[in-house]
Amino acid sequence: HGVRPYLRGYRGLDTLHATSKVALGVATLREHDLRPDEVLFVGDTLHDHETAVGMGCRCVLFAGGHQSRDRLLAAGVPVIDALDELPTWLATHS
Q1: Per-position DSSP letters for 25-58, written without gaps between them
Q2: pTM
Q3: Is residue 10 over pLDDT 70?
Q4: What tens digit of pLDDT does each residue of 47-88 get?
Q5: Does residue 57 contact residue 39 with C-beta atoms inside 8 Å?
Q6: Which of 12, 23, 36, 88 is the most buried (most CB within 10 A)?
Q7: Residues 4, 7, 11, 16: what is their CA dihedral angle, to the nearest 10 degrees?
Q8: What is the pLDDT of residue 16?
């Protein structure tokens, strides 16, 4: 999808349970010595948006995943329809 050059890494939960990702995200920020304002959190659920807020990071939501575009728009953050839109979004919003 053309996003690899923008990634230092990625993380996710290895469980099907909808537990919080905030602790994992904060640990990842510390591990890579990143400030929250340097990170863009990309997710496909409202929980991903909540996690980004909890971490203090910007967020873009992807409408091709678990929740519908209409539901994601309720978060009030940018929503993309395809992951290959992300490089263009990054180029114009960095």
Answers
A1: HHHHHHHTT--GGG-EEEESSHHHHHHHHHHT-E
A2: 0.81
A3: no
A4: 999 999 999 999 999 999 889 999 999 999 999 999 999 989
A5: yes
A6: 36
A7: -40
A8: 59
Name the CA dihedral angle for 44, 9, 25, 37, rounded to a multiple of 10 degrees.
Answer: -90
d(CA 90, CA 85): 9
49: tokens are: 């948006």
Q: What secondary structure letter does DSSP report for 80?
A: E
* Residue in 83, 62, 47, 54 with CA at minimum distance from that of residue 39: 54
Q: Which two tokens stand for residue 90?
A: 């990054």
> pLDDT higher for 43 or 1?
43
Reported as a single tens digit per residue, the pLDDT across 15-30 is 655 566 888 889 889 9
Query: What is the C-alpha to C-alpha distance for residues 37 and 14, in angstroms, rounded to an integer?
Result: 26
Tokens of residue 35, six digits:
């400030």
Cβ atoms of 8 and 29 closer than 8 Å: no
